[in-house]
Write a structure and sequence with these properties.
By secondary structure, this protein is α/β, with parallel strands linked by helices. The chain has 10 helices and 13 strands. The model has no long low-confidence stretch (mean pLDDT 92).
């Protein structure tokens, strides 16, 4: 298939390479000059050119541009499947444009849903009542450090918690700065989920843990570098989206409605953290 990739920064370039590896033909567009693309890519400087040649589109631009890119695609006559990097957009007011997109396949790029360790963790406890999801990193080294605060750029852990059964209600915000967000998701007494996103750390750590009354001391899953986390989830996520384009299910990929729920939680944190 011809697949459009809009935005050729770190994640867009990764997706383009993976599309080629999966046997597809990426069409690349960026408002900035595109660097050396993977072999097999077509570069265009016109969005309408991309829109009329592709069967699906990946939006890999900064979050605050996602909705404007979607609307431009519509103006170019494109109404097909869309994969959008996280978060789906940057304000709840823009969610209506995503809900109204005419094609049923809209998937949000929360790639931890395709990591074997998170899938195993999710399956290990049938009905978890508590959880802890940490992301510690040096945000100065984060590829999207200029795109927004850690609450949005590091929202993979938030989506992972929701994917594992956490409630979508923020009960308490302990810390909220540009580079740090620590908050609790509460369902009822005894069901508290901690999300701690720290972009001020000097060392990398991802920590995921679930608990229940019957398994209060479950060992957490930990990753001490991006390299240990691995690259396989990116390829699996993209392959899954392309199967959805061809008629397969979006689940376990993040649907547009689930992406909007993540955004709603982020908005709750912002309000409570003011």
């Amino acid at each position: 298939m011809n697949i459009g990739v809009i935005g050729c920064g770190s994640i867009g370039s990764r997706h383009a390479r993976n599309l080629v590896a999966l046997g597809h033909r990426p069409w690349l567009y960026d408002v900035r000059p595109v660097g050396q693309p993977a072999t097999g890519c077509t570069i265009t400087n016109r969005l309408d050119d991309l829109a009329c040649h592709v069967e699906a589109v990946l939006i890999c631009t900064p979050a605050h541009t996602h909705t404007s890119v979607l609307r431009q695609l519509g103006e170019c006559g494109y109404a097909g499947p869309v994969f959008v990097e996280k978060p789906i957009c940057d304000t709840l007011a823009d969610a209506k444009y995503w809900r109204d997109w005419p094609h049923p396949v809209v998937m949000v790029g929360y790639n931890l849903r395709f990591h074997h360790a998170l899938l195993a963790l999710r399956a290990s406890v049938r009905r978890p009542t508590a959880g802890e999801f940490y992301l510690d990193c040096d945000m100065r080294q984060w590829p999207g450090r200029d795109y927004g605060m850690i609450l949005t750029e590091g929202s993979h852990e938030l989506d992972a918690a929701l994917f594992c059964g956490a409630p979508a209600r923020v009960g308490q915000v302990d810390i909220l700065t540009t580079t740090r967000a620590t908050f609790w998701l509460d369902k009822d007494i005894g069901a508290r989920w901690l999300i701690d996103l720290d972009g001020d750390c000097q060392k990398y750590l991802r920590h995921w843990a679930l608990g229940s009354p019957s398994q209060p001391d479950q060992s957490p899953v930990r990753f001490t570098s991006p390299e240990v986390l691995g690259d396989e989830m990116y390829l699996d996520e993209l392959a899954h989206f392309l199967r959805a384009v061809e008629g397969g299910p979006i689940a376990p990929g993040c649907t547009r409605e689930e992406g909007i729920v993540v955004l709603d939680v982020i908005e709750q944190v912002r309000r409570l953290g003011q």
